[in-house]
Predict the 3D structure of the following.
Amino acid sequence: DIGSQRDRVVSEEEWLKKWELGNIGFHKERGHPLLQKYLDVLLNGRSGLRIFFPLCGKAVEMKWLADMGHRVVGVEVSEQALRGFFAEHGLSYCEEPVPEISGAKKLQSTSGNISLYCCSIYDLSSSIVGKFDGIWDRGALVAVNPRDRQRYSSLMITFMEKNSSYLLVTVSYDPNKHKGPPFYVPESEIKSLFG
């Protein structure tokens, strides 16, 4: 049971405020050890993959995977986070509007292998970003408002190619003692969301 978290809603404005104030304890400067540990599961012996980072922030793993020859696509509501990613890695990029989404921008590395969309994840669709060979969900499902999990997982499934790998990190704790985010997502719910 997710207890008192069931009705908790974190607005887009609250997320933007976290970035503005530097309240980003969820950001990992060195990349997540579980991605390194399970990289073979994500890649499954394949190279040159398209890998999606939902709610990407300025995840250092995006550059790491791009440097390995993969094409990375991320989505994040905070433009500050996306610009921070490019600045911190010394990557030049160009910016263009996303015609299908009012007010959205795409920031793309000059090399073309990293494309980051600045918009709500729910504004994206596979007709805009295509499908992916892998998804690295390090902090997205646990950041999504509990009432939006079904909508989120349904969207993720539409982004997956036939032989896609989905690597998901969640957190385990007593949801009555912490209001989230990160939100507690019981394993039973993960199974019902993703099958």
About this structure: DSSP finds eight helices and seven strands in the chain. The mean pLDDT is 94. The domain at 3-194 is CATH 3.40.50.150 (Rossmann fold). The longest strand covers residues 160-168.
